[in-house]
């Protein structure tokens, strides 16, 4: 099972469809059981969609990092 940290690291690949089928399945499985990551991914997608509408294909790096920090605050402490 993927950890939340791993999922977040791979979230942009998942959204961009740059992922092997095996990995996608792992991500989907994690999303199935993890509400916070579902919420994070949804937010990330919205942000990317919003940004790319504004100025074509510039990756909203700063925004991603901001979201990531906000998100990490909401994560429960967990052992790896
Ligand atoms: Zn998670």
TrEMBL record:
Gene3D superfamilies: Anti-sigma factor, zinc-finger domain (1.10.10.1320). It comes from the Bacteria. InterPro entries: Anti_sigma_zinc_sf, Znf_put. This is Anti-sigma factor. It comes from Kangiella profundi.
């Amino acid at each position: 099972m993927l950890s939340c940290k791993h999922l977040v690291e791979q979230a942009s690949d998942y959204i961009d469809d740059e992922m092997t089928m095996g990995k996608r399945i792992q991500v989907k499985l994690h999303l199935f059981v993890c509400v916070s990551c579902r919420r994070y991914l949804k937010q990330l997608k919205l942000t990317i969609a919003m940004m790319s509408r504004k100025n074509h294909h510039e990756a909203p790096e700063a925004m991603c990092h901001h979201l990531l920090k906000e998100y990490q605050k909401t994560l429960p402490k967990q052992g790896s």
